[in-house]
Design brief:
Blueprint: E1 2-9, E2 17-23, E3 30-39, H1 42-49, E4 59-60, E5 65-72, E6 84-87, H2 97-100, E7 126-128, E8 131-132, E9 134-135, E10 145-149, E11 153-156, H3 162-168, H4 171-182, E12 190-194, H5 198-209, E13 214-218, H6 222-230, E14 235-237, H7 240-250, E15 256-261, H8 271-277, E16 278-286, H9 301-306, E17 310-313, H10 321-333, E18 343-347, H11 352-360, E19 366-370
Parallel strand pairs: 4-9, 12-13, 12-15, 13-14, 15-16, 16-17, 18-19
Antiparallel strand pairs: 1-2, 1-4, 2-7, 3-5, 3-10, 3-19, 5-6, 6-11, 7-8
Family: Belongs to the zinc-containing alcohol dehydrogenase family.
Domain Enoyl reductase (ER): 13-371
Protein name: S-(Hydroxymethyl)glutathione dehydrogenase / alcohol dehydrogenase
């Protein structure tokens, strides 16, 4: 067995507790990773608040991670000890219909994302005393070491800083892809991004890099609006009401080619105002996670049809992790995509609760645990 310190969640509404978890050595198709950095993504907060109920506790959260391969099991071919890797909460089995057709972000192994056993063989390989421990999206990156399926890691250039590799493994890939892949932003487009966290500001960068003429950022927190303007937004607004009025004036009533919903939590009443910002024949992309119990949303279906608009869901930026992660890191090394600027503050593993308190207070754009 291998021992590791990890931030463990024992139930919704509770704080993370730093505890020692025992994990197996790698078996077939598995790797042991020495974690070096992990982003504080709001998706993990959904597990803590209960917006996304987890099937099993105790639970190790964290899914936006990067580290060094320490040990590999039989049959592992894509990495070896010493390789640097980014984690991917979306696995890539390479064999299902979705992987074979270039849509690994919809890999069938994603159905095992919240299973308590290993993705490889279903066994219990993580324990806290005599209790089985689950891992958020089969990763559990709020830990100093972690046992993972080979299908959940992507090899990266060892010259890339660990925080940068961690960020592209989830938030940046999701936000950037929301603009570039799902909204299909083109040169000259007008784009609105609603909610400027790690995902939203990455959508702003994606829209800028794709050639959008105007990028409107909407967030009530002044600090986040300032960061959006620094990273590519042309205008920033504190509220949807203010944004709607000004965007109507700035676009001569045409409104936005695409609108990207990147709220910390997506609620049904936010959809219709987003559609009001969307131009005729435009696209409204829903990237933000809604509470799982919210099963309906009010939409003016007459106007949706008569204006020829689209509502699109978006998972992982609608691009395969093994394609997205290297491409985004290439943009980063070329100085085109800004990643270092996203990390407002770093924390130790023991400060994970402090990090999420800062996130809730709107004091950070992205926080990162650094091991």
């Amino acid at each position: 067995m291998v021992s590791t310190r990890a931030a463990v969640l024992h139930g919704p509404g509770q704080d993370f507790k730093i505890e020692t978890v025992e994990i197996d050595h790698p078996r077939a198709g598995e790797v042991l990773v020495d974690l070096r950095a992990c982003g504080l993504c709001h998706s993990d907060e959904h597990a803590r608040t209960g917006d996304m109920p987890m099937p099993h506790y105790p639970l190790i959260c964290g899914h936006e991670g990067a580290g060094v391969v320490e040990e590999v099991g039989p049959g592992v071919t894509s990495v070896q000890p010493g390789d640097h890797v980014a984690l991917s909460f979306v696995p890539s089995c390479g064999a299902c219909q979705w992987c074979r057709t270039g849509r690994a972000f919809l890999c069938n192994d994603g159905a095992k994302m919240f299973a308590i056993g290993m993705m490889t063989d279903g066994r219990i390989a993580h324990r806290l005393g005599d209790q089985p421990v689950s891992r958020y999206t089969q990763l559990g990156a709020f830990a100093e070491r972690q046992l993972l399926a080979e299908t959940s890691i992507v090899k990266v250039d060892p010259e890339i800083p660990f925080t940068a590799a961690a960020l592209v493994s989830c938030g940046v890939a999701t936000g950037f892809g929301s603009a570039v892949n799902r909204a299909e932003v083109k040169p000259g487009d007008t784009v609105a991004v609603l909610g400027i966290g790690g995902i939203g500001v990455s959508a702003v960068q994606g829209a800028r890099i794709a050639g959008a003429r105007q990028v409107f950022a909407v967030d009530p927190v002044e600090f986040k609006r300032e960061q959006a303007l620094r990273l590519g937004a042309t205008h920033a607004f504190a509220s949807l009401a203010e944004a709607t009025e000004e965007i109507r004036r700035l676009t001569d009533g045409v409104m936005c080619t695409s609108v990207i919903c990147a709220y910390s939590v997506m609620h049904s009443e936010l959809l219709e105002p987003a559609l009001a910002l969307t131009a005729k024949d435009g696209t409204c992309v829903i990237t933000a996670v809604a509470p799982i119990t919210q099963k309906q949303a009010d939409v003016n279906l007459f106007m949706l049809a008569m204006s020829n608009k689209q509502i699109r869901g978006c998972l992982y930026g609608s691009q395969s992790p093994r394609v997205a992660i290297p491409k985004l890191l290439d943009l980063y090394t070329a100085g085109i995509l800004k990643l270092d600027e996203l990390v407002t503050r770093t924390y130790t593993l023991d400060q994970v609760n402090e990090g999420y308190a800062d996130l809730a207070a709107g004091q950070i754009l992205r926080g990162a645990l650094v091991f």
